[in-house]
Amino acid sequence: MSRPRACVATGVAAGLAAHLGWPVLVVRAAFVVASFAAGAGVLLYVWLWALTPWEAGEARPSRSAPVAWLLVSAAAVSLLAAAATSSLLALDPLAVDAVDGGSEALGSWLFAVFAGVGLAVASGAWATFIDRPEPERGPRHELTIRLVATVLLVVTAAALVLGPTAAWYPAPTFAAALAAVLGIGLVYAPTLVTAWRELTEERTKRIREEQRSEIAAHLHDSVLQTLALIQNRAGATTEVARIARAQERELRDWLFDGEAPADSDLGTDLRDFAAALEIDYPVTIDVVAVGSSSERASGEVAAAAREAMLNAARHAGGEVSVYVEATPDSVEVFVRDRGDGFDLVDVPSDRLGVRQSIIGRMRRAGGTGEVRPGAGGIGTEVRLRFPAERVGGAGPAGIIGTEGSRG
């Protein structure tokens, strides 16, 4: 069982309905009916809310219902009901039993005050912990909810202290006013908790960065220099050099990219593929990505670029350069090797690797692919171009942009 990421408030009813195969309205009605059984429906709802995970996906959960506004509105209604009840108490103070405080009217008044304070505090907590991360609401929404809840509680505390109930029922009035004052602090407590959590995470991250820097400095002066020396002495295409380069790349990624979130941009995708090719073939592949784009790496451009890199590693070997450039107009990939080169016309018609996996794939996706001799007639250069207006979803699989660095 899981909760949908696009939901009304928490996704509990929708997730349970999907799990049981029931209409969601039936599930919601069952929660309401079960709540009259000593609050069993409320307890079950909260339990499922706490323990049921979100459905798989990367999208941030979004809620259509303005829950924080509903809570603060309910708080206002409850506090207004308490004000109306206090007026009735002031008109007939003798109706309250001063000995045991058992008057039904006084009990209802206290309940309305405490319920209003609790709902105001809940609205502030919801706005901070749940609504603030959502882009459509955010910090401004949180601040507005907190201000409205604060005004409600300040007015309530002042009305309790200065109102007629303070003279006739001092002890209950003091308790209610104290609850309103504490509620003001609790409205802002989630903000302090969030700030403390962010401060702790920042401190932990800084400590990790310091430790990583110490390790990096030590390894750079020893292991990395040794691996680089092995590559230079052994030659670029030997087995020892390839293993040393793969280990150096892996170690550098661990040292300098270990804290970076895994991203699937085109540059990262091609660097990972280059590292794998260097283990399997006698080749050294340098990947450089410039420009920035919010698009992810998947689809035809990445597939065509990987095929070109595989061909260069398999047939040319030696040193291969991969250059990825994202501009406002297009995404381009250049794969250059320094092998013997070839003429596409001389390739037999039954060899479909270049024609279909590279040129044909780009043409079908709406881009272009070109194979031509390298600079000075040395080696081969494969150029792939995809127009920006089609990047990110117009192609067959949603094509990619770039945001990377030298691999």
Would you kindly provide a written description of the structure presented here, covering whatever features stand out?
- With 407 residues, the chain is of the alpha/beta class.
- It has helices spanning 12-20, 24-35, 40-51, 67-91, 104-131, 138-162, 165-168, 170-234, 239-256, 266-280, 300-316, 353-365; strands at residues 6-7, 62-63, 283-290, 318-326, 330-337, 368-373, 380-387.
- The chain has two domains: 6-202, no CATH class; 264-390, Heat Shock Protein 90, CATH 3.30.565.
- 60% of the residues lie in helices and 11% in strands.
- Strand 3, helix 11 and strand 4 form a beta-alpha-beta unit.
- Helix 1 (12-20) packs across helix 2, helix 5 runs parallel beside helix 8 and helix 6 runs antiparallel to helix 8.
